[in-house]
Amino acid sequence: MQLKQFYSGHPWLKQTYHSIKLLFESNKSTLIPAPLFDENEKESYSAFNFPVNDDESIYFNKLKNLDAYIVYPAPDILIKTTKEIFPDHLLYCHSGVFIESLLILNKNQKTQKRFFVNTRNNFLDIVILDGRKLLFHNSFSYKSKEDFIYFVIFVIEQLQLNPEDIELVLSGMIDKNSRLFDTIYKYIRNVSFQTKTDAFNYSYVFNEVPSYHYFNLLNFELCEL
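The chain above was modelled as a monomer; its predicted structure follows.
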């Protein structure tokens, strides 16, 4: 398996660490308000919201700033392998980290609707905040820039937002000189990229990497998960 090969080829991964947290990317997850959450019902929550394969199991994380749980599946072979490599690791869903990071970083923002899009390989994650309130979260699969902008415009229309007024903040694998960005800019003018938080000190090598490319990873430690 590629994960074992990567582990074997990078000796620094074998050192002793205070804690080990793994960020798992998935296109399937759902949010359950904390007062309604029952761990014994996690399979029912999942089955109602997305298909679960026979070789997957259901996991969950508490989102403290949202007072909710995010429920998601992960492949059994992946979990088995990560437990062999990192027996005491903690698993987290990338969508939960995305939501928690945005809630923390925007906690002092004035009340206004802000539209966040995280771009992954063939997937995009959308979060809309109104001040510290989560209005919307979902992940969509896309194959072309037309698919991508369709989902962005669809969400804007469903929430009755004005594309002339809404602020769209991008993160993930997208750049200003890409065709994907050009397509977005045709429909939404107020577009920016996520910047590095000043909560951490960064090595100079991070100057060579766009901060918005690895927004979830760089802000993982902000989250109270």
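Residues 36 and 73 are 19 Å apart (CA to CA).
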